[in-house]
Amino acid sequence: MKIAVITDDGKTISQHFGRAQYYLILTIEEGQVVAREMRNKMGHSHFVSQSPAEESHGAGHGMDASSHNKHVSMAETIADCKVLLCGGMGMGAYQSMTQLNIQPVVTTHRDIDEAVQAFIDGKLIDHTELLH
């Protein structure tokens, strides 16, 4: 199984899905990480030309069809992954990942290796209260 982790440095989990620069892809077999791969990740900055006026981050932000299409674009790179670990994301991105059959998990862990081990052990908590 492959899981993706949003990161800017390959060691820590980024706090915001849309702003992270990379995905760290981890291949897990028989409870062990057997491969790691960094992949570029599309983010908010890639869509600036599509929405010249910055949208408000109020209720409903990121829940419209245009936002879903952006989330789909961000997820193309991880279409082979079953899980996405992040430190935070919007409700719209969370729902989009779910619709794409990628299980998003919002974690309070910052260290990637600790979070991945907790996931492998079945002890990683999805902190949906941190969605915005």
UniProtKB/TrEMBL annotation:
Chain ranges of the Dinitrogenase iron-molybdenum cofactor biosynthesis domain: 9-120
Pfam family, one: Nitro_FeMo-Co
Protein name: Dinitrogenase iron-molybdenum cofactor biosynthesis domain-containing protein
Region (Disordered), start-end ranges: 44-67
Family matches, as InterPro entries: Di-Nase_FeMo-co_biosynth, DiNase_FeMo-co_biosyn_sf, NifX/NifY_domain
PANTHER family for this protein: DINITROGENASE IRON-MOLYBDENUM COFACTOR BIOSYNTHESIS DOMAIN-CONTAINING PROTEIN, IRON-MOLYBDENUM PROTEIN-RELATED-RELATED
Xref: Gene3D superfamilies: Dinitrogenase iron-molybdenum cofactor biosynthesis domain
